[in-house]
Design goal:
The chain has four helices and eleven strands, in the order ββββββααββββααβ. It is of the alpha+beta class. It folds into two domains: 18-178, Elongation Factor Tu (Ef-tu), domain 3; 192-244, Membrane-bound Lytic Murein Transglycosylase D, Chain A. The strands form three sheets. The protein has a seven-stranded antiparallel beta sheet with strand order 2-1-7-8-9-6-3, covered by helices on one side. It has a two-stranded antiparallel ribbon with strand order 4-5. It starts with 17 loop residues before the first strand and ends with a strand.
Length: 248
């Protein structure tokens, strides 16, 4: 029994997690099927805000700057006790489990495969692709969970060895970061004209120029003037904080 980890002897009929290299062979790259599903996984994301301090205010206003990085992390368990050949598909996996039962988990020199045969395939997903000039984009699927991104870190922890010193058991701590699927708005959120922003007046600034920069239309300067109670648009003061309202 493996405390805190999935028991490799246990026959659990669950769909296996897959990791697909989307950059290889026009998206039809090798599909890596994990030997044992992770016991759990964690998804984490954040959003970014820019504090805007107002004179006399106890707390700053917060301006939304956009989404931060989303992360997916999990542990993968590997054990390569077999008949000296790679474990492939359901039959191969069943053979591996039978080996555990017959040998009671003992490592026999003539019946071992270096576990790096399996772990290195995942570890290599951080290698730079020659054509893309970056590591490959990946698709991770498990049941209803789907995640597209890059392998940002992978820690290999080898925990058991054969009599000849080759590792036969390992745990991989994997962390992935999500990438855009291309469906997001083209505008940078902090530059979008439909969100409220705050700008500091600098020498030489004018409401006309500010409206042109923020809205792409200089004639919208009255929106900024109205939001800040400005009667004379020519009396801007350097260092003054102006509210730039979003356009509906």
């Amino acid at each position: 029994m493996y405390s805190g980890r999935r028991n490799p002897n246990q026959d659990i009929g669950l769909e296996k997690m897959t990791i697909v290299n989307l950059d290889a062979d026009n998206g039809n790259g090798e599909t890596l099927v994990v030997l044992y599903n992770p016991q759990s996984y964690v998804r984490k994301r954040s959003v970014e805000y820019q504090p805007v301090q107002e004179l006399g205010a106890e707390f700053p206003k917060l301006q939304y700057n956009g989404g931060g990085i989303e992360e997916l992390s999990f542990e993968l368990f590997f054990d390569s006790v077999s008949a000296g050949e790679e474990v492939k598909g359901k039959n191969g996996e069943e053979k591996l489990k039978n080996e555990f039962k017959q040998n009671q988990g003992k490592i026999l020199k003539e019946k071992t495969v270096d576990v790096r045969t399996y772990t290195q395939k995942i570890y290599d997903l951080m290698t730079i692709e020659k054509d893309a000039h970056r590591p490959p984009m990946l698709s991770i699927s498990w049941g209803s969970m789907e995640f597209t991104g890059f392998l940002s870190s992978c820690e290999q922890n080898f925990t058991k060895f054969s009599s000849n010193g080759n590792p036969v058991r390992a745990v991989l701590n994997c962390q992935f970061i999500r990438c855009s699927d291309g469906k997001e708005a083209a505008l940078n959120p902090k530059q979008s004209p439909d969100t409220t922003k705050y700008r500091t007046v600098r020498q030489g600034d004018s409401l006309w120029a500010m409206a042109q920069k923020e809205y792409g239309d200089a004639s919208q300067w009255r929106e900024i003037a109205a939001a800040n109670g400005i009667v004379n648009p020519r009396t801007l003061r350097s260092g003054e904080m102006l509210t730039v309202p979003g356009l509906v």
